[in-house]
Amino acid sequence: MTQPQLDTSPKVSDEVRKTTCYMCACRCGINVHMKDGRVAYIEGNRDHPVNRGVLCAKGSAGIMQVNAPSRLRAPLRRVGPRGSGEFEEISWEEALGIAGDWLSRIRGTDPSKLAFFTGRDQSQSFTSFWAQAFGTPNYAAHGGFCSVNMATAGIYTMGGAFWEFGQPDWERTRLFMLFGVAEDHDSNPIKMGIGRLKARGARVIGVNPIRSGYNAVADEWLGITPGTDGLFILSLIHCLMSAGRIDLNYLARYTDAPLLVDDETGLFLRDSDGKTLVIDRATGELAPFDRKAVRPDPNARHPGHQTVLQLMAKRYLCQEYAPEAVADRCGIPAQRIRAIADEIARVAFEEEITLDRAWTDFRGERHETMTGRPVAFHAMRGISAHSNGFQTCRALHVLQILLGSVEVPGGFRFKPPYPKPVEAHPVPHCKTQPDCPLDGPHLGFVRGPEDLALTEDGTPARIDKAFTWENPMSAHGLMHMVISNAHAGDPYPIDTLFLYMANMSWNSSMNTRGVIEMLTDTDENGDYVIPRIIYSDAYSSEMVAYADLILPDTTYLERYDCISLLDRPICEAEAAADAIRWPVVEPDRDVRGFQTVLIQLANLMELPGFVDEGKAPKWRDYADYIVNHERKPGIGPLSGFRGNGDQTGRGAPNPDQLQRYIENGGFFVNHIPGEAGFYKPWNMVYQDWAVGMGFYDKPQPYLFNLYLETMRKFQRAAEGHGERQPPDHLRGQLRRIMDPLPIWYPPFEEEHADPADYPLHALTQRPMAMYHSWGSQNAWLRQIHGHNPLYVPRDVWDRYGFQDGDWARVSSVHGSITVPVALHGGLNAKTVWTWNAIGKRKGAWALDPDAPEATRGFLLNHLIHELLPPRGDGLRWSNSDPITGQAAWFDLRVSIEKVAPQTETDPAFAAIGSPVGRGPKNLQWKVSE
């Protein structure tokens, strides 16, 4: 038989260009294969430290982002009503002139009239620098509705958190627990890590109401009731402390467990230099915590004081945290909770790891070995996006610390530039005046009431009310409250809303219909309540139709980007690493990278920091900025190839730096010395290395904070102490929730949604093949997730008599939706869920109006509101964590009923006009043979 002649090694590309993926926040390395100057296909870069050649469906589908029909093509000025999608194309000169005129008038009178907020971009160190130079206090990024609880709780507790801050010790961990982790964040490294764990027989336990993705491959799955993770974690702490299975040596040396707390004030005992005090085990006398050779005693006694460990024992040994007391609420049997605690203790203390690696701690003590507890945790938005999320995240960090499993072999390891103590971070700034920069960084970490962003009369200084008594520790701002507050003129009206990559009229807002109405609402004179909206995006998203001026962005393969150590780097636990994107293809449209546009606007307005003393621009574009900007002498956006190309971390700008990165595959790696690999907060070799890298100006060893004195200061203010006092209506809340030791309280929506009327929890999570809302208009990814049913557990399915193809009406205290349903076998019995951001509005994204995303896709956002229902006190409270302002997406309670099958989901919004029209029925794109 004649065999067909096949070319098994066809020529697939003329050239390979190595850069960094942007299809999610993993920032994997990619090889972009080019033919005749066009993208032929994308594969993973095997030399890259993040993904080592692994690439997911999103990354491979990046090729379809570069030729998506929904790409914006030129600057646009609105000519029809907001929401009509009617625009006219204008030149960049005209667009920059309009934006510059609007912004200059604001800056010259009252810079706070500009609200500048960015979405899931990865250049926040630059955008915040621009906003600070402009002088507005109103800047933040998307973290407030993503996972600020996790990040902030981690920084305050131990100097870093999960994901971008750290990772499990994948090579040594023997027990790995995930809490509330979907598949969109850090997906390739986690998949690779779980693969390594399983290959050597380590156990994986998933704690999540939904069993999908990582939880589906876990050895054990705990289908916890949403919003009760904190209670479950505190019960584990109860079991471990009751059994004496905590690492007392670790707690005494490296944490605040032995610090003395005043019984009357709840504040730490300090010496005349402000140093916190302990009792030295050797002498029995008071001593500063960091004195050379001191041996702190966590069980010491001192008149009128208790140690932090003693306070913890009083609280967590209480029977209210016993498994039997929490089991029903958590949906996990008491016997199972005790078994998990026993397993954690057994692995941590009976499978101890010892490395023959010497190191010296900050008290000058030389250790010949490194001891590790091979239990590691990872958590994300699932436990963060609740109104009790901050304290839940705190509880998980405290659990790790009690085990002694942070920064040790087998446990959780920080990624440079973390760990960083709170003291290494700025406090928030908000003082503004015409034609002047802001008095300091917008975002930061408050140390007490004195750092709140309040005006002289005590009202919020920021439009989102971040860093106020309503949410004192809101380190990422409250992006979900910007439009609502601006529309209400509370605390003041704004003139211009400037958004980047923030699809606030659709999947990035709670109360979607209400937000659309706010964006289009007019006053008695017929003028828009929010006078001007500038928006930048690469694609014709739902938000485009509601802007007055569109500044079109490039796609990620057409621009320079900087994945910086100043911002959100790609480090690993054993190395500092950063990366770039660069234009592997040139745009075929009249578009510009948003960061370059900001520089051009800054040059037009002659913003300080962007122009020299003679008002000449310092930088032409973003690439020029990346190379030549210095945040402080010798410290710039990129750490590699500085000076003459041979300096790392600190060094003068190198004009050839970007080319060196390109030649090196788009990234740079600097490995941590072996002796500095663990115990980073206390290891003096690491501290000296970090100073050399520019993370600190001097070594900053510190103690982990089991007890947060900052929170106690806010409690004391609520009790009437101090010069800055909260309003009376917030005193009770502050006393209750600002507890310096982790607590649990029910999610706030439960106060309004009676379980008898709304018995089910409703959640969204992003699938592994989706991250940005961009992904659901991608021609390849749409074939994986073209629509989304509401997944229902077996008990609910049977109770309501659902069958395949059925539809349901789902209702909350805020509204109702009608959607298709599907049975899901891996669900908490009181939970329904769906994929997020699949549903699209007709007319957007160049999709056909009959596309499944627009007819059978939907958002749970329609059931969620940015404000809680009235409590009877005449006030409307933000639907957020009251400590950080994190949007409480996952507090949602619903009811469900079966309805007749529908042809489209409800609510069905009218189609909006789009400046790019509708894409072709079949998208064909082929490079030459």
UniProtKB/TrEMBL annotation:
GO terms for molecular function: 4 iron, 4 sulfur cluster binding; metal ion binding; oxidoreductase activity. It comes from the Bacteria. Keywords: 4Fe-4S, Iron, Iron-sulfur, Metal-binding, Oxidoreductase. Its cofactor is [4Fe-4S] cluster. One of its GO terms (cellular component) is cell envelope. Residues 14-70 form the 4Fe-4S Mo/W bis-MGD-type domain. CDD domains: MopB_CT_2. Pfam families: Molybdop_Fe4S4 (PF04879), Molybdopterin (PF00384). Coiled coil: none annotated. The keyword Metal-binding applies. It is found in: Cell envelope. Transmembrane segments: none annotated. Belongs to the prokaryotic molybdopterin-containing oxidoreductase family. This is Formate dehydrogenase.
